[in-house]
UniProtKB/TrEMBL annotation:
Gene source species: marine sediment metagenome
Protein name: Uncharacterized protein
Amino acid sequence: IEKCFEHYNSTASVAYELLKADGTEVKFDVVQHG
């Protein structure tokens, strides 16, 4: 997952914080885009 965020620096940083606070549903969403 972290490798994914290297490509999405600004957006992923925010999305990562949101998915950590929200749970796993958003997590899977982000992983799919990666």
